[in-house]
Amino acid sequence: MGWEAILYSDPMSSSLPPEWIRQQSRELLHTRVFDVRASEFRHPSRAEGKEFLVIDAPDWAVVAPVTPEGELVLVRQYRFGAQQLSLELPGGVIEHGEDPAVGAVRELLEETGYRGAEAEVLGWVHPNPAIQSNRAHLIVVPDAQPVEATDWDADEELSLTLAPIDEVLAMGRSGKITHALMLNMLFLLEPWWKQRARERGTI
Amino acid sequence: MGWEAILYSDPMSSSLPPEWIRQQSRELLHTRVFDVRASEFRHPSRAEGKEFLVIDAPDWAVVAPVTPEGELVLVRQYRFGAQQLSLELPGGVIEHGEDPAVGAVRELLEETGYRGAEAEVLGWVHPNPAIQSNRAHLIVVPDAQPVEATDWDADEELSLTLAPIDEVLAMGRSGKITHALMLNMLFLLEPWWKQRARERGTI
């Protein structure tokens, strides 16, 4: 039985929860990274309106640069939210109207100086659908190789490193990588990598 | 060669990036869900201070309630950030000073009416270390079973459903679950579940 059948045949889920309708918003805070709005939502059946917080930001991209040797290019940088160094995959902000795969390739080149074969979108996630409207796109760049010097933004001081994909998966599962969106990438990369290895006959 | 060796033997990563030092903060926005602060950070070697945005919020918990039949208890609810219905695991906010496992069990009971055997912390993530200071704890509750009626917060209208863990893993990898923190839970739950199945001799 597929999951659709399970969802809708289960007596507990005989009715879907209500979908509220977004009305007008008022801006509470505007920054260069995100805006915070108080948005009024109307309940579809109850005669009720209520304000909820929404953080609006551009979409983000996380990039998995896979070298011909089956390694990932990782970056380590200081993160001002967590206030500590963080081991991550490259990534950044997708510009307005920009194709996520194009943005991912651009960010990869700026941050690491690496470029690869055609980028492949593995999926996207809501970083936090409760309070954020944006998405993070998860993009793999196969055959990534260093082609030029990095082009860092101000205050972007990174150290690069390479590690085999299987090692990085283990690091993700043992707390050495803690960035939620990087772990999302690893979750989707694992079957992609196994499939690729099967196709190449290396496992 | 272990990953530590790779990191520090690689010429690209011969030096770690700088760790800035947080100085005073000023509050830009206070809400019932999170606060936004502009925090001044000082660079450790450059004679330079600069303000960065930090979203401070309580820690969160994501709960994987595993039934004796090997199913997960899922909740579907409207999410005001993404402005759509979202299929998720239970979870919520850890109260100040509360043990994450205790908070997870409390949230599970309130949201679903389920309780289980002793909760097990699989790990934690930074939801977004670039701009958020808090953590999300990933907690599994084995042998989860319905014991009482739900106790929803105002505006919390959920539909519950059950699905086998393997189905939920497939849903997570095919875009039917898009909440980043739920996918983090699945990433850590997969090896836990395989290990448990091996111990029970069911695979």
Task: Walk me through this protein's architecture.
- The structure is a homodimer.
- Chain A has about 200 residues and is an alpha+beta fold.
- Chain A folds into 2 domains: about 15-55, no CATH class; about 60-200, Alpha-Beta Complex (Nucleoside Triphosphate Pyrophosphohydrolase).
- Chain A is built from 4 helices and 12 strands.
- In chain A, the strands form 4 sheets. In chain A, strands 7-4-10-9 form a 4-stranded mixed beta sheet, with helices on both faces. In chain A, strands 1-2-3 form a 3-stranded antiparallel beta sheet, with no helix packed on it.
- In chain A, helix 3 runs antiparallel to helix 4.
- Chain A is globular.
- The two termini of chain A are about 30 Å apart.
- The relative contact order of chain A is 0.15.
- The interface between A and B is large, with 76 and 76 residues.
How do the strands and helices of this protein lay out in sequence?
The structure is a homodimer of 203-residue chains.
Chain A: H1 3-9, E1 21-30, E2 35-42, E3 49-56, E4 60-65, E5 71-79, E6 84-88, E7 91-93, H2 100-112, E8 114-115, E9 120-125, E10 136-141, E11 145-146, E12 159-164, H3 165-173, H4 180-200
Parallel strand pairs in A: 4-10
Antiparallel strand pairs in A: 1-2, 2-3, 4-7, 5-6, 5-12, 8-11, 9-10
Helix pairs in contact in A: 3-4
